[in-house]
Amino acid sequence: MEVPILKQGLYLIASIQSALTDADLLQLREALIERVGRFRSRGVIVDVTALDVMDSFAVRTLRDIAHMARLRGAETVIVGIQPDVAFAMVQLGLSLKGVATALDLEEGLAFLDRGGAPKRVRG
Amino acid sequence: MVRKPSNPEAPPETQPHSEATAALLRELVALLRQNRTQLREEWARRITHAQLLTAMSEQEIFAEATSVYDNYVEALETGTFEALQAYARNLSERIIPRGVETHEVVGIVLLLRDVLARSLFAKYHEDFEKLNRILDAYEPAANRIANTVAVGFVQERERIIRQQQEAIRELSTPVLQVRERLLILPIIGVIDPQRARQLTEQLLQAIRTNRAKVVVIDITGVAAMDANVANHLVQTVEAARLLGATVIVTGLSPEIAQTLVTIGVDLSEMSTVGDLQGGIEEAERLLGYKVVLLAEVVPKG
Question: Is B14 helix (H, G, I), strand (E, B) or coil?
Answer without folding.
Answer: helix
